[in-house]
Amino acid sequence: MEEDLRSLLQDLESLKGCVSDRYRIGSIDEMKQRVVSIVNLTKSGATRRSKVKDMSAEVVDSNPYSRLMALQRMGIVQNYERIRDFSVAIVGIGGVGSVAAEMLTRCGIGRLLLYDYDTVELANMNRLFFRPDQVGMTKTDAAVQTLSDINPDVVLESYSLNITTVKGFEVFMESLKRRFSQKSGQNSGVDLVLSCVDNYEARMVVNQACNELGQTWMESGVSEDAVSGHIQLLVPGETACFACAPPLVVASGVDERTLKREGVCAASLPTTMGVVAGLLVQNALKYLLKFGHVSPYLGYNSLKDFFPTMEMRPNPQCSNNACIERQKEYLQTKPARDAAAKSKLEAESSKNEGPLHMDNEWNISVVDDSEMDSQNSCGVSGALPEGLIHELPTAEKDHGSLATEESKTVEDDLEELQRQLDALNAA
Amino acid sequence: MEGWDPNTKSALTQIPLLSTRAGPRDGAAWTQRLKEEYRALIAYTTMNKSHDNDWFRISAANPEGTRWSGTCWYVHNLRRYEFALQFDIPVTYPATAPEIELPQLDGKTHKMYRGGKICLTVHFKPLWARNCPRFGIAHALCLGLAPWLAAEVPILVDSGVLKHKDDESTSAES
Fold this sequence. Notes:
Chain A has helices spanning about 1-20, 20-45, 65-75, 95-105, 140-150, 165-175, 200-215, 270-290, 320-330, 335-350, 370-375, 400-410, 415-425, and strands spanning about 85-90, 110-115, 155-160, 190-195, 215-220, 230-235, 250, 295-300, 310, 375-380, 390. Chain A is of the alpha/beta class. Chain A: Belongs to the ubiquitin-activating E1 family. UBA5 subfamily.
């Protein structure tokens, strides 16, 4: 391209030599100017910044991390540079996942693992991130293309597969387990999994993997009518897992009967998806870099601009075996956790000994946050806070007698059953 | 089950329920579950044939029974429209239902996700969730795919999106 333009410049120069008309020479010079600006444009598009070895806090235009490192100077984050040690897996590179990936990339995250089985389509262009020239590429490859341009410091891994199939799940598990850096005390090679998928089946698969690995994850979702969404923190054993109770969704706040559902399976807006991606990555950054309060559940109702929050404890009768195991482990480590919390509390109270003010004329007292929170925290059977509803019904109890009868009668040989079905199929 | 037609309801009551809560990663328990799946499918197919309502063929596409394929058909205005049918048993089965795919119809209707997965969200998913682990593949066909075909095929044919295979060949010849 650049060579073509250079030879065009030479042609114009030689053309100029043959022309005597002053007016014509002027317009040829103008054309030369335009070619030169195109050359410069192609050059600027091609330059990629080189990798940066250490994050610098120096405030210069050429430092990609100066505004992030300023978080440290302002006292929001203690050690921002730690972000380079973290690996985050993002499952589902759609309207939410791709934007979350871009946010983490711009924040200078150490490593991103990207999972999706889909390709980019023109129908995706109402959302952020993907460009029309990427149509036909796998979403993960297109994401790597854009993200590596934005920040070459981030290690990117692209997995174009369906995690709900048996084979896909194996690869998913192996990739999560593989260690990248020398960090100990973890079952998994990633620090956080972000679920940005658009269906219940895939969420249940992420839940399964994270329960088995004891891996903390965050779930996100946008409603099919595109006007509400939510994020949720899931710590296996400590909080409710995704199978502990039917999934919670934010009620749209309008009469459900007036919603027209026939004809389409899903609508989407770049706004709602951008908001949810922002909430998700903000929560992820707070969790990883240890600042602020990490939300256990945060809903977003865009029609009323209402943000319901809540906490959910695990279900001791959860149908997911791995969840039950993690719950047991969590209970076993309770004494150690309590002791640690107590010593921390003591250390803090010894720091600020003595009352700040000698008299308290108005009886002002500080109320513990946890007392306030407990109002909004509920077990799986508990009532839901305003604005939240269950997406699916709970499984009805097994009819005990029926179940035992079933298992007794099915003792046939599997191959015999296969033959019977084949015979029916052939008939 | 309000709102379902009497035929579907009576068919449903005659499909044997399953009891083993096991997915493809559960070894021997999955084999037990597979036997129950076969038993339900055999009963459902037999019943369809005896009621002159045969409408699908399905068999395991791999020895583990984690991938299934076959055909299904729907009769509209006395003409039979037939489609290839396939699905994977998800790793989280039976907590989540199989996602039934009709690849030939991919991109032809709104009521479908990419890859030809039929949309089951409203009419089927709540039923599956309520009846886990008692519903199996046969129930998914009866309550998921059958109503979907009944709702979508007439619309696709009448709107001209879907052509009968005889019409397609004649138009190609002329």
